[in-house]
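FORM 12-B: Structure-to-Sequence Request
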């Protein structure tokens, strides 16, 4: 697996320029908002989604101003959803930094998320990027539906495998697919090409989320699995596989433990051990590889270039990362 800095090389210049444009896209005359957006920029993540935008644009055409707007729109939407997610999940930490709601409380965090979303939409409208707006608006709808579907299923703890895939498709994959589709749409009028990149992004995004769920079972710095999803009563693919391969009585016991003892460390540890013994980790890894290979297969139809190689390596990075 290549390091992210090496994967960025074909779009290094574009990413530097994007950083400045992204900061400008969040500017406000309200001092409080300025302070919060500066904090957001300071605590930003790996910028994987803008990378998907620029690399997709480069394999489909020539990067244009609309590509920078597409990347800013995706990153504004992504940041807005993270801010809102932290409120929904009552989370006080994000990427090793305090979350917005931890520092400024829920009311301000919700308003900041709304502000970022509106800035993204206005950025598109003011430049007549209606195609990009359509792609991203669809993503906003899907992500909201996915979050609500997960909340509904978590309450009853009756998530089937098909429910899980629909939730992660909507919650996670739809944003990566819209990043890839937006990159293509910013440089090409070819609807078939945009659709192909959207399909690529969806498969890569599903693989990305399965990997994210698997990381919950990997050992942290203390040598213990995190088990955060179980503590939040989220049933991910390894757990679903284990439940599907348990007897009725054992299944009832496990569901009872997750529902009533999810905040008990020993109980969570016990469920993790059952998952590992059931082969749930191996099964989830296999499904992740299937989606990863399907995504890479789509890229085989493009002409070889440094950007195509980087996009392939980005898919490898998102499915082989350790955190």
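FORM 12-B RESPONSE
SEQUENCE OUT:
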């Amino acid at each position: 697996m290549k390091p992210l800095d090496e994967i960025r090389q074909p779009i290094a210049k574009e990413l530097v320029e994007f950083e400045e444009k992204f900061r400008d896209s969040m500017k406000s005359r309200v001092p409080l908002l300025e302070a919060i957006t500066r904090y957001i920029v300071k605590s930003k993540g790996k910028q994987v989604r803008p990378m998907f935008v620029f690399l997709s644009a480069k394999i489909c055409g020539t990067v244009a101003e609309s590509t920078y707007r597409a990347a800013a729109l995706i990153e504004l939407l992504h940041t807005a959803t993270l801010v809102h997610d932290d409120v929904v999940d009552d989370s006080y930490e994000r990427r090793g930094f305090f979350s917005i709601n931890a520092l400024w409380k829920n009311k301000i965090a919700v308003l900041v998320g709304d502000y970022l979303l509106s800035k993204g939409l206005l950025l598109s409208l003011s430049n007549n990027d209606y195609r990009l707006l359509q792609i991203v608006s669809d993503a906003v709808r899907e992500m909201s539906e996915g979050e609500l579907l997960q909340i509904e299923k978590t309450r009853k703890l009756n998530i089937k495998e098909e429910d899980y895939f629909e939730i992660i498709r909507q919650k996670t994959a739809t944003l990566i697919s819209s990043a890839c589709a937006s990159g293509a749409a910013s440089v090409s009028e070819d609807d078939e090409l945009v659709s192909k990149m959207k399909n690529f992004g969806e498969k890569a995004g599903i693989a990305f989320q399965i990997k994210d769920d698997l990381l919950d079972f990997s050992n942290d710095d203390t040598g213990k699995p995190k088990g955060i999803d179980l503590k939040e009563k989220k049933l991910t693919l390894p757990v679903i596989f284990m439940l599907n391969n348990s007897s009725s009585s054992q299944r009832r016991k496990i569901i009872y433990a997750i529902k009533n003892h999810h905040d008990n460390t020993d109980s969570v540890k016990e469920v993790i051990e059952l998952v590992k013994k059931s082969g749930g980790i191996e099964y989830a890894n296999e499904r992740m590889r299937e989606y990863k290979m399907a995504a890479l297969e789509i890229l085989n139809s493009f002409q070889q270039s440094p950007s195509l190689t980087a996009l392939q390596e980005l898919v490898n990075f998102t499915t082989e990362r350790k955190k």
